[in-house]
Amino acid sequence: MKPWRKHFLLKSILILISLLTILLLLGFKGAEESVITLYPILDSYVSSLEPSANFGNDACLYAYHYHDSETGLTSSTNSYIMFDLSDIPSNVKIDSAVLKLFIIEVPEGVEIELGVHHCRDVPQSEFGITWENAPSFNPTPTDTTIAIESTCHYIFDVSKDAQTAWLEDKKLTELLKMEKSLDEGIMARLCSKQSPFEDRRPRLEITYLVPT
Ligand SMILES: [Ca+2]
Questions:
Q1: What is the distance in angstroms between the CA of the first residue and the CA of the last residue of the chain?
Q2: 31-210: which CATH topology?
Q3: Burial class (CB in 10 A: 0-12, 13-18, 19+), 100
Q4: Which of 19, 61, 143, 206 could join 79 in a cystine, given CB atoms 3.0 to 4.6 angstroms apart?
Q5: Facing residues of 210 across strands?
Q6: Residue 55 C-alpha to ligand 1 middle, in angstroms?
Q7: Which residues surround ligand 1, an ion (CB under 5 A)?
Q8: pLDDT in tens, 127-137
């Protein structure tokens, strides 16, 4: 191909890409904002102390981590929470996603650092997930918070994970864990989707933009 033709072709492609980008941006510029609240399709804690046990039907979730520096032994309890994003219209852009969890109890005067981690593998069923078959998760937390008060909601920004899940299989799974070892027996207790108190069950509030 002659150099001037090659140059012309490259320039045309660049102009086309620029036009498509502008059209895409214009599409969301006047976008309408909508909010949807989703409830988990699965939640359960898993415990290294009872590795083959399932707790999917428990009304509580837990976060616990204890490392015994003398024996070197570690025991942990982590909680998995999965949401189905497929009720969100397909032509939208997810702007933000906030995970709301209700803490029933943290010991008085103790600060517990809790983190949520994106889990890209789909867990077993709610009544099949155990410590032994629990899926892996991103070791870096998506968001963390310091839990110090009992009987209140805590929020986590999981926008990035929801945007990723939205482009993949539309299933968002987060793992909740205690980020640092504290004294033995200190844990956070939270409400699961089996809680009799509807307003205390985990939920995901997603804000999305509908192109106009
Ligand atoms: Ca459950």
A1: 42
A2: Jelly Rolls (2.60.120)
A3: middle
A4: 61
A5: 32
A6: 7
A7: 43-44, 56, 192, 194
A8: 999 999 999 99
Measured in angstroms, how far is the CA atom of residue 210 from the centroid of ligand 1?
Answer: 32
CA–CA separation, 70 vs 93, rounded Å? 51
- Report the distance separating Cα 50 and Cα 102, nearest Å: 24
80 touches 123 (CB < 8 A): yes
Q: What is the pTM of this model?
A: 0.85
Ligand 1 centroid from CA 58, angstroms: 6
Distance 11 CA to ligand 1 centre (A): 56
Q: 54: CA distance to ligand 1 center in Å?
A: 10
Distance 194 CA to ligand 1 centre (A): 6
Delimit the domains of the chain by residue range.
1-29, 31-210
List pLDDT tens digits, range 71-122.
Answer: 989 999 999 999 999 999 988 999 999 999 999 999 999 999 999 999 999 8
Structure tokens at 182: 């504290």
State the distance from the centre of ligand 1 to the C-alpha of 196, rounded, in angstroms.
12
Ligand 1 centroid from CA 57, angstroms: 5
